[in-house]
Amino acid sequence: MGVAGLAVVPVLGGAAGVSAAEGASPSPAVRLEYHGAQNLALEAGDDLWFSLEGMSPGWDKVKVTSPALQEPITLTPLKKGSTQSVQVDAEGSEHRIRSGLRPGTYPVTATSHGRIVAKATLKVAAENSAQIDRFVIGPRDAVPGSGTPASLRPGGDVRVVLTDLRAAPGENSLTVTSRIFQGPVTIKTNSPDDPGCKCDDSGTVYAGHTRLRGDVPNGRYTVTVVSHHGQQTTTQHVTIAGRPVDDGSPSWAVTGGIAAAVLALAFGGALTVRRRRSRRAEPSA
């Protein structure tokens, strides 16, 4: 059974050819899935939900275990005779990833009366890591889109917006630096420069404005912001082109249109995130 408002992430079951323990075989018809908060990668300490589909009618209980889980999770039929499951939420139960867990990929096993019905893998991200949904820089007098404009003119007034789906607690401002700015730029939560875009829902929005240097040569430049109390660095690339703004004309280039691609961390592109004190690991084989 799906969970309302949650992203469903399928994991490997018997049909995917994951080897089972000797003497027991997962059913190829059974599908095991885990569910996490929408648009967020699972990390240590997060709540999660499991579900099964394809169980034989008459099954009564399945236990889901993993080294990554705080405790085993029990699944029962959605209703009598159902092939789908519902998670048992007993009082005091801990349906979450263990706190302090190292990032990586962990095995998951679903067992019914001592028989393995499905095996899976669970990918866990680094704890307390940022999840940047967008990092955009554009003309202050224009509504910022999902991507930065194709180019900006020297001396133009710009607005900087960053959205973090996992903002660090108590971090209400960030500092943005680049050669194209006259000095460090502070972006804050609850800023008048926040565009109030629905695309930023569920995220913490930092925004601010500044003026680009008028003497910056045309070219491609890096813009950097450090967040999560110094633990994470995010970079963006901006193109400067055209004559300096000195006559009140629009501060952005007319040609080139808007750069395609939402600058989400998951899709790479021009946006890069690097942890200074990295706890991120590649998934295990």
Overall description:
With 285 residues, the protein is mostly beta strands. Helices cover 0% and strands 36% of the residues. The chain has no helices and 16 strands. It has strands at residues 6-10, 31-37, 49-53, 62-65, 73-77, 85-87, 104-112, 115-124, 132-139, 157-164, 173-177, 185-188, 204-211, 219-227, 232-240, 272-275. The strands form four sheets. Strands 6-5-4-7-8 form a five-stranded antiparallel beta sheet, with no helix packed on it. Strands 12-11-14-15-16 form a five-stranded antiparallel beta sheet, with no helix packed on it. A three-stranded antiparallel beta sheet has the order 1-2-3, with no helix packed on it. The chain is elongated. 34% of the residues are buried.
Salient structural properties:
285 residues, mainly beta, 5-stranded antiparallel β-sheet, 0% helix, 36% strand, disordered C terminus
- Give the strand content: 35-45%
What does the overall shape look like? elongated
Number of DSSP-assigned strands:
16
Write down the oligomeric state: single chain
How large, in whole angstroms, is the Cα Rg? 24 Å
How is the largest sheet built, in terms of strand order?
Answer: 6-5-4-7-8
The biggest sheet, with number of strands, parallel, antiparallel or mixed sense and barrel status, is: 5 strands, antiparallel
Arithmetic mean of pLDDT: 77
Low-pLDDT segments, ≥5 res: 1-24, 251-270, 276-285
Between the first and last Cα atoms, what is the distance in angstroms?
Answer: 29 Å
Summing up helix and strand content along with how strands pair, one would put the structural category as mainly beta
Query: What is the tally of helical segments?
Result: 0
Helix content range of the residues, please? Answer: under 10%
Order of secondary-structure elements: EEEEEEEEEEEEEEEE
